[in-house]
Amino acid sequence: MSRDVPDTTAPERQILQDLLNDNREGLLECVSGLTEQQARTRLVASLTTPMALVKHAAFAEKVWFHVTLPGRTRAEVGIPETIDESFKLEDSDTIASLVAAFRETCAESDRIAAAYSLDDVGEHSRLGPVSLRWMYVHMIEELARHAGHGDILREQLLASRS
């Protein structure tokens, strides 16, 4: 699937936001064209499935932009304490519900981040002080990695269907 190339000469913050948005969309492509059953299929020993990657990505967005940046707790935000829990799918989870939740989470992440400068610092429970700039770079990295995982899983699932 083809996405627009972000402006490569934009100011730093716009570049970071554009790359983050691009990787968000790349991650969502991993569930595109899959059935609900395919999107839940485990092809690896971990809980990683295309749907679980989307659910985990929403969790990661919340950890950094909803918890760390404004100084809230995971309980306040309503997310699990462990990463493994963020991959667990509920029977009620669907592709559509997880995509909608992810998009809503990302929109809220963008609203929260807009109130801060790139040099502003939040306190992460494990890493200590981290700047918003670092959070952007980390999320770009994390979503790119998971989009790659999802792309491979999607390719395997679609190949098994033919």
Automatic annotation (TrEMBL):
The protein's name: DinB family protein
Species: Nocardioides cavernaquae
Pfam families listed in its UniProt record: MST
SUPFAM superfamilies xref list: DinB/YfiT-like putative metalloenzymes
Gene3D superfamilies: dinb family like domain
Domain of life: Bacteria
